[in-house]
Structure formats: structure tokens, C-alpha cells
Specification:
- The complex is a heterodimer of chains A (about 200) and B (about 575).
- The longest helix of chain A is centred in the middle third of the chain and has 20 residues.
- Chain A has a domain of about 130 residues.
- Chain A is mainly α and about 200 residues long.
- Chain B is an alpha/beta fold.
- Chain B has 2 domains: about 300 residues, 3-Layer(bba) Sandwich (FAD/NAD(P)-binding domain), CATH 3.50.50; about 200 residues.
- In chain B, the strands form 4 sheets. In chain B, strands 1, 2, 7, 8, 9, 10, 18 and 19 form an 8-stranded mixed β-sheet that branches. In chain B, strands 6-12-13-14-11-17 form a 6-stranded antiparallel β-sheet, with helices on one face. In chain B, strands 4-16-15 form a 3-stranded mixed β-sheet, with helices on one face.
- In chain B, β8 and β9 form a beta hairpin.
- In chain B, α1 packs parallel to α5.
- The longest helix of chain B is centred in the last third of the chain and has 20 residues.
- The radius of gyration of chain B is 23 Å and the shape is globular.
- The two termini of chain B are about 35 Å apart.
- The chains are: A mainly alpha (about 200), B alpha/beta (about 575).
């Protein structure tokens, strides 16, 4: 392939980010297959508007998880919340596929409810926003959390990480971050001039 | 576009005996298959795993986005490096155990697929330097090789030209330059690392990876999607399957037998190799194929295992083992890593920082061991950037300022700190020692009934002090960059954070070459002293580890061994 052919080919490809110098039908098939797999395996879309039914959380746990993930990553002016991004469904899938996660998750959710009952006489879901935040404030900073809530802090670190995994790798999360790689680039320039200027600022 | 050609149709002429049987289809086996078929030999390659083809979307996950899978890239049982990794294998393969001597730890990684480990590696492709072949002469430790850099240099050149590598001419004394494609420019964090290293006197140069940046031998140059490890659909990086085996199959002289787990090399009454017996892993059937020459390229430990299992009246200790060294003098690269947060890189302006699937810069060993308390060096690999967010994204957020938390403030900190961390990984030379080796376990067999390996492993102060130096250096670089290290300095009791033996997946030795048959299994042509039609073409023949990744040397030696085989055949000796 001459350099000119290559530039033209890649120019045409860059215009269609999902494509590459590979048989287009192959990419389409792979993409379609992946999309079907997502729907089939994760069930992230409720069928005909029916609500998603988790297979690895009890109804009570599910209500708690749906609340908790949005405390970790709420909606803001730039993007949606963890539930908007399907994080609870992602967690349900992960608990089914990687069953070693069930113990820490279920014990941790239980710990959160127990702590809420101890402090306020009601589980997390039934607490007020202020009460919920009091418990979260106690466990959300592992380096400074009190020894008496260590189990809760360890749980919350894992829960925050799993929430972040599900959120930032979702369509919403990727767009929010501004990740613009994973596409063919005709010529690698390295660091663009504006980034160079930023890098060399005082 | 290369596509995997179909198996050559059956010929009228009976295939057996083959001219050459090669066990293993990775870097060494692929290179031997390429060279030998090109030279006219009829070759059978036995591969324990199944088929693969980078160019097919059935296999390659190139360009998938994280949300295209419900796993978001998390690892699976047969893909420890993530679901999209091209390499099927791991440290634990069901039904194929290995054991460890009490109190020692060694993790044995195996690939089970066509192309072997070349489907999984950073493509860091470094020549051993002149000193690396004669370390004992320099510091009295380990052993010299029976060959020198000058013996291997022409083969390194040929590998460069055939497979392609990017890099830069640096004229460093023990880091020989190759025939390089242009190296890609560094990413933003790599620029800062380079600036910092320059002020600290640490040599920092463009990386040397087997990724092509110009067209080469019908392969398109890299398109910088950053997904080398998923199997490149344009074959712009190196894998044995698509760069060596595909053209070898095109000659019509190669038969590639997958799902074939080699049990032993069979020998005749004269002690010479007659072929290989293997298990069809899909049917459990025991099969035998015959050949005039056998080349083992199953990986250092697997080749040692096959030899130890090839016992006969003529070879009671196993084949090529009259010296007793098979399995001995096993080494792996030393490894330790440190990462940290760099405030200066906060809120990096968004841009495509993917590049090739690996670091664009590296630090070769830059110090003089005579002035240090450990004898051998290491090179440094770097990480960081604006990579694709996948499973495990910013799992150390609680180590950044803010200490974790939740809510709108946390969400904003993920954005602010994404791309603001760097990591350094040291990859150093272990010196072969008597206490690090493998042998046959006297009682345990795998699911095919083949005796398994038992590993013994011991690091010495040579390695511990080297890794301590890595830790101190990486911490110093992060501090010099104005950053904060995420983890405390590991203690002596924690081995200074040294990775387990086998964790870096650079096992070498076990079937070493040497100057005499008393202390080595192979001569300097990787030919068994005890069996002249048996060769080894993987990491087994290595005498020492070097602070370099071994693949380029495995391939240069495999090429050299193949040329020797053809020369001997022409001379009527084989």
C-alpha cells in the first residue's frame, strides 16, 4: 500500500470511528454480537418496559443497592447517575459471574443496615438523607475511619470501586470522561500542541 | 490483508516421517516453522491449545468498547489479564496442575493456543547486549554463554527485518541498536517522566516494541488504537500465528496440529529421536508422529518436562539429560512496581493518548553495578495516561487527595485525577542458582496421565537488593515529579515487594546450552549433546537472564538453530 493510499484509506476510516482497515462486515458482526451479548447476559434493558429483576440480590438488597450507588455517583450537570448508567444491573451480573463477590457485598449491605438500625432504629432505605449521610461519612474515608467501623469502611471501598467500574465504563461514563481513543489514527502525533502548552505551563 | 490459509490438502505422498516436528507454536516454534518450511522442509507443528486468528472478529476484540461487554473487561478463568486479552491460558489451567516444593512459591504461566505467549506480551523487544552473554567473566557469578553477541547479531538483524520493530539508535554500550522503524512520539505523561529522568541522570529512551510503524512484508502499519493485547486485526504487531505461521502455512509444507499435548520424544535403539507421542486433548487418544528431526519449543519448563518424561533404556534420566541439568538453573525476571499521583497532571486536557499498546519510552539499565550492593541491572517500564476506562477503573481513588468519599465531590475527583497517575515497573536480571529448578513430581500426573513438574524456588540477596533499589528509584522519580506514592515502601520481610517467581512470565533456562556435555543439555547450536537430531528453540537454552525481555533472543536463536538444521540436513548429517 502506498503512503497516499494509506492516508486516504485511514482518512475515510477516521470519519467512521467504528470502522477500520478490516473487512467491515467483520466489525459489524462483532459489534452486533457484542451488543446481543450485553442484552442477553446482563439484561440491562427491561423487557418491554418491565422492571429489571435481579438474580443475585434480594428485593431488600436491591432497593439498598439502587440507593447506595447513586450516593456514590449522583447525577450532576455533566452526566447521569450510577443508576442511569445501569450500575445496579452491572453489579447483579458481576455477582453472578464472579461469585466470590457475594460474601463481601451481602455482608457489607447487612453491615450498613445494622449500623443504621443501631444509630437510628431503621434500615438505610428507611432513614432520612441526613441519617444516611452520617453513616456514609463514617465509612467513606478508609484512612481516617474509626476502628469501630472498619468492616463498614472496607465494604464501602469495594462498593465504591465496583460502582466506579460500572459507571465509568458505561456509555455515560466514557462520554463524561471524554475518552476518545480506541479508534484508528492515521498518523500518531503524540502530544497535541495544546496539551504540550498545558504540560509546559509554569 | 492476511488471512489464515486453510490446512494444505492431503497429499498423495505419506506425510510421515516429517522432516521436522516442532512442539509448540509460540515465538520459537513459529520462527522455526517459518524458517524450516521456507527452506523446503516438511514440518509438523504440535500445539497443545486451539486455533486463533487475529484477523477474525471471531477471535479478536480489537476496537470493542468497554460497554460492549457486561464484564467491562474483567478477567475470566482462562484470561487472567482480562476478557479481551488475546491469550488463552494462565497460571492455573484446569486438569494441568504443577506442584511446588514445600515452602517455595513459583507460579507457572502457560498459554494454550496457537501462537502461544506471543498473543500475550508487551511486545518489548530487546536484544541482549555483548555483556549479557559473558556475565561470569565480568562479575564471577552464574555462567557465560558458549556464544557471543557477535554470533547472534546477524540473526537479530534478520528478526528485525522480518518481523519489524520500532526504536531509536542510541549507541548505548550494552543495549544494541536494531534495524528500527520510527518510534512513536511520547505521550504527555511520558514526556514529564523523560524530563524528570533527564534531570536525575536516568537514561530514558524511546521504547523498542515489535509494532510496525511503516508497511512491512504485506502488513499495514500500526493505527494506534492501543489494543495490541487483544489481537491486532491488521497484524501491525507481532504474533507468531499471524506473522510466522500464516506464511509458513502458505508454503504448503506445514501441517499445524492443534489440541496436541506432547507427552514425550520417542527414541530408537540408537538413542536418536524418532518422533513425538502426544495426546489428542479432545478425544484423549494417544498418538504418535515420526520425524527425522524434533525441535522442542514448548516453553522453557514445558520442554524440560517433555525431556524428563522421555525416559528410555538409552536415556534413563530422560532425554538430553546425561548431565543431569535438565530442569536446573531456572530463572525468571525480577519484578516490582510503584505507582503514584502527580498533581501537575490533574485535569489533563482530553485527547487521544492511546498510541501503541505499550509504553512509548523506557529506561534501560543505566548504572554501574560495581558501585552498587547488587550485581545485575534492571530496565524500567512506565504506565499512565488516558487509557480506556474498564473494570477496575481508578480503584485506588481513596489514595488520592480526598481519601475516597462519595457524591458529587467524588464524581468530580474521578474526572480530575483520571490520567494524573504514573506507574513504574522494574524488570531485572535474576542470577541462576542451584535452588531454583523444576523436576518431575514423583506422584502427581495431569489429566492426561503425564507426570507434572514440581518447582523449587529461591531468591537470593542479589535479587532482593536489586528490587529494593527499584523501589527506591521509582519512589524518587515520583517525588521528583512532585507526586505522592500510593503505597508504603515494602520491608525486607516483605521481600521489598518482589513479584513471585514466574509472575513476570519470563522463565528461562532448564535446558541450558554450554561448552561441554558435562554441564549442559545442548551445544551452542541448541542441539542436544546426547541426541543429535533433537533441538530446543524456546527459552530453555538460555544460560542467563539479562535485564531484557527474552522474546527477541528466543527468535534470533530459533532462526539460527533452524539454519543449522538445514545446513546439517544438506550435509547429510540429519
Amino acid at each position: 500500500m502506498s503512503d497516499m493510499d494509506r492516508r486516504e484509506l485511514l482518512a475515510s476510516l477516521v470519519a467512521i470511528p467504528a470502522a477500520l482497515a478490516i473487512p467491515q462486515d467483520g466489525v459489524d458482526r462483532a459489534t452486533a454480537h457484542a451488543h446481543e451479548a450485553v442484552l442477553a447476559e446482563a439484561g440491562t434493558v427491561g423487557q418491554q418496559g418491565r422492571p429489571y429483576v435481579p438474580t443475585n440480590f434480594t428485593p431488600d438488597e436491591w432497593r439498598l443497592v439502587r440507593l447506595l450507588v447513586d450516593y456514590v455517583i449522583p447525577r450532576d450537570t455533566r452526566s447521569g447517575s450510577a443508576t442511569d448508567a445501569g450500575v445496579p444491573q452491572f453489579m447483579d451480573f458481576i455477582l453472578g459471574e464472579y461469585r466470590s463477590n457475594q460474601t463481601w457485598m451481602k455482608e457489607g449491605l447487612g453491615w450498613v443496615n445494622a449500623e443504621c438500625r443501631r444509630r437510628f432504629g431503621a434500615g438505610f432505605v428507611s432513614c432520612t438523607d441526613v441519617q444516611r449521610r452520617e453513616v456514609l461519612d463514617a465509612i467513606a474515608y478508609p484512612k481516617t475511619a474509626a476502628a469501630t467501623v472498619r468492616a463498614g469502611a472496607e465494604f464501602f471501598t469495594r462498593f465504591r470501586n465496583l460502582t466506579a467500574s460500572g459507571f465509568w465504563s458505561s456509555r455515560i461514563g466514557v462520554a463524561d470522561l471524554g475518552y476518545i481513543g480506541n479508534r484508528p489514527v492515521s498518523e500518531w502525533v503524540g502530544t497535541p500542541p495544546e496539551v504540550l502548552r498545558w504540560l509546559e505551563r509554569g | 490483508m492476511l488471512a489464515m490459509p486453510q490446512q494444505a490438502p492431503s497429499r498423495a505422498r505419506a506425510p510421515e516421517p516429517y522432516d521436522v516436528i516442532i512442539v509448540g507454536s509460540g515465538a520459537g516454534g513459529g520462527m522455526a516453522a517459518y524458517e524450516l518450511t521456507k527452506a523446503g522442509a516438511r514440518v509438523l507443528v504440535l500445539e497443545a491449545g486451539g486455533p486463533w486468528d487475529n484477523t477474525s472478529a471471531q477471535y479478536s476484540a480489537m476496537l470493542k468498547m468497554p460497554y460492549d461487554s457486561p464484564r467491562r473487561g474483567a478477567s475470566t478463568a482462562d484470561r487472567p489479564f482480562g476478557e479481551w486479552d488475546a491469550c488463552i491460558g494462565g497460571w492455573n489451567i484446569p486438569g494441568e496442575p504443577y506442584t511446588r516444593a514445600e515452602g517455595t512459591r513459583f507460579d507457572w504461566w502457560r498459554a494454550r493456543m496457537v501462537g502461544g505467549r506471543t498473543n500475550h506480551w508487551g511486545r518489548i523487544s530487546l536484544r541482549f547486549g555483548p555483556d549479557d552473554f559473558r556475565r561470569k567473566s565480568i562479575d564471577g557469578l552464574g555462567d557465560d554463554w558458549p556464544i557471543t553477541y557477535d554470533d547472534v547479531k546477524p540473526w537479530y538483524d534478520e528478526v528485525d527485518k522480518l518481523i519489524g520493530i520500532f526504536g531509536s539508535v542510541e549507541n548505548l554500550p550494552n543495549e544494541p541498536d536494531g534495524i528500527f522503524h520510527p518510534a512513536p512520539a511520547p505521550r504527555y505523561h511520558e514526556r514529564l517522566i523523560k524530563q524528570t529522568c533527564d534531570t536525575m541522570g536516568i537514561t530514558c529512551i524511546p521504547a523498542r516494541l515489535s509494532v510496525i510503524t511503516k508497511p512491512l512484508n504485506g502488513r499495514a502499519p500500526c493505527h494506534y488504537c492501543g489494543q495490541c493485547n487483544r489481537g491486532c486485526m491488521t497484524n501491525s504487531n507481532f504474533s507468531s500465528t499471524n506473522v510466522l505461521l500464516t506464511p509458513a502455512l502458505r508454503t504448503g509444507r506445514l501441517r499445524l496440529q492443534t489440541h496436541a499435548m506432547a507427552r514425550e520424544v520417542t527414541t530408537g535403539p540408537d538413542g536418536r529421536a524418532t518422533g513425538v507421542s502426544y495426546i489428542d486433548t479432545q478425544t484423549g487418544e494417544d498418538k504418535h508422529v515420526s520425524a527425522r528431526v524434533v525441535v522442542l519449543a514448548a516453553s522453557a519448563c514445558e520442554s524440560a518436562r517433555i525431556l524428563l518424561n522421555s525416559k528410555s533404556a538409552r536415556h534413563p534420566q530422560g532425554l538430553a539429560n546425561s548431565s543431569g541439568v535438565v530442569g536446573k538453573w531456572l530463572t525468571d525476571t525480577t519484578g516490582a512496581g510503584v505507582s503514584g499521583y502527580i498533581p501537575r497532571l490533574e485535569d489533563v486536557p482530553r485527547h487521544n493518548a492511546d498510541g501503541v499498546g505499550g509504553n512509548h519510552i523506557m529506561m534501560p539499565w543505566w548504572l554501574d553495578n560495581r558501585k552498587l550492593d547488587f550485581p545485575r541491572g534492571y530496565h524500567i517500564e512506565v504506565g499512565g495516561g488516558l487509557g480506556m476506562p474498564t473494570y477496575g477503573f481508578m480503584g485506588s481513588i481513596h489514595n488520592y487527595p480526598g481519601g475516597g468519599g462519595y457524591g458529587a465531590d467524588l464524581k468530580q475527583r474521578y474526572r480530575k485525577y483520571w490520567g494524573a497517575s504514573v506507574s513504574f515497573d522494574g524488570r531485572g536480571e535474576m542470577i541462576a542458582n542451584e535452588k531454583s529448578y523444576c523436576e518431575l513430581d514423583p506422584t502427581v500426573t495431569d489429566r492426561f496421565g503425564i507426570p507434572v513438574l514440581r518447582f523449587h524456588w529461591q531468591w537470593t540477596d542479589h535479587e532482593y537488593l536489586q528490587v529494593k533499589h527499584m523501589q527506591e528509584t521509582f519512589r524518587a522519580i515520583i517525588h521528583e515529579m512532585g507526586g505522592e506514592v500510593f503505597s508504603p515502601m515494602p520491608t525486607r520481610e516483605q521481600g521489598y515487594g518482589i513479584a513471585n517467581g514466574g509472575a513476570i512470565i519470563h522463565e528461562l533456562g532448564g535446558v541450558r546450552m554450554g561448552p561441554t556435555e558435562r554441564d549442559s543439555a545442548l551445544n551452542s547450536n541448541c542441539q542436544a549433546w546426547d541426541c543429535d537430531n533433537l533441538f530446543v528453540a524456546d527459552g530453555g537454552p538460555f544460560v542467563s537472564q539479562a535485564d531484557k525481555n527474552p522474546t527477541w533472543t528466543i527468535m534470533a536463536l530459533a532462526m539460527r538453530t533452524s539454519a543449522y538444521i538445514m545446513q546439517q540436513r544438506r550435509a547429510g548429517a540429519l
